């Protein structure tokens, strides 16, 4: 393996493709970090006073988003940002599909571990998961294509090269940062068995194996291509974890069989019913004293109204329609509905380790910290 590459399943593109991939990643970083923040001054000086006068009150996030679409620079931002997202995924897909045989050969060579894989081709793919989520053609199920690894490889490339995420070459800053915060807040917690629901290719999963090396660590996902790629990727890094193709609403594991259950950026892509089902499944699966937590963008009640309105692009133009409902959820109410005691709920912000080491916080979508909320059983 070329030691400049992040892992053994990473495909090295030709120079022209590498340039295109990097270019679109830099365009998105520029749009997020340099252009969009400047629109707030227009909102405060012009749009907000107009809305307050018209409505006789402070506007909500939907009213702000609608009014800001009348602001030409913001309207143009929506167009360019959407095209950049789509084109970035397109070039990542081209790189993967051009080397599909190589991808298959590498996965086959890594098939003896140390990671383990459990595939279930008969598992139904949930209707609520969009086939074009994030403007990634084919989505997590790789709809319309048949390669068993491509969707996972494309997703991995996207998060590593689309620098709006700024999570390092292994896309593991979130996992490492959240694990560090969790250990600091619960210093006596020693999980023996850990489950991630919606693990995709393991960006969050592998750091938790690093943080708790003596624990059995399992990741589940409905996407066969993501599970298959994730297992090969983990093996190439020498990490002993299990990837299993299962649905988080009904995992099939025994009651009380895990000490820690986590998710990352999952529930803004699931419908309300599925989210509640998974909260209840977390409660069923946890042992007494076990912890569940869910890491995503902050809930709306953690943000000012203008910042809430910025999610409008993701909701309407990035194929993530469930964001509005999930971020508006009163999480503590939902945890209690699932069976957790209200006084056992928690919310934290984990400072980004990569930002603390010198990366510019404004170039991340997280602002240099990661929100997560959960409960102790």
- The largest sheet has its strands arranged as 1-4-3-2-5-6-8-7
Q: What is the number of E strands?
A: 8
What percentage of residues falls in helices of 4 or more residues? 40-55%
Mean pLDDT: 94
Which structural class do you get from the secondary structure elements?
alpha/beta
What Rg, in angstroms, do the CA atoms define? 21 Å
Q: What is the helix tally?
A: 15
N- and C-termini, Cα separation: 44 Å
Oligomer: single chain
Shape designation: globular
What profile does the largest beta sheet have?
8 strands, mixed
Q: What share of residues are in beta strands?
A: 5-15%
Describe this structure in words.
It is a single chain. The protein has 377 residues and is of the alpha/beta class. Helix content is 45%, strand content 14%. The protein is built from 15 helices and eight strands. The protein has helices spanning 15-35, 39-55, 61-68, 72-98, 100-109, 150-161, 173-185, 205-211, 224-236, 272-285, 305-309, 312-317, 323-328, 331-338, 353-356, and strands at residues 116-118, 193-197, 216-221, 242-245, 258-264, 286-296, 345-351, 369-376. Strands 1-4-3-2-5-6-8-7 form an eight-stranded mixed sheet, with helices on both faces. Helix 8 (205-211) links the parallel strand 2 (193-197) and strand 3 (216-221). Helix 2 crosses helix 3 (61-68), helix 4 (72-98) packs across helix 6 and helix 6 crosses helix 9. The longest helix has 27 residues, at 72-98. The chain is globular. The mean pLDDT is 94.
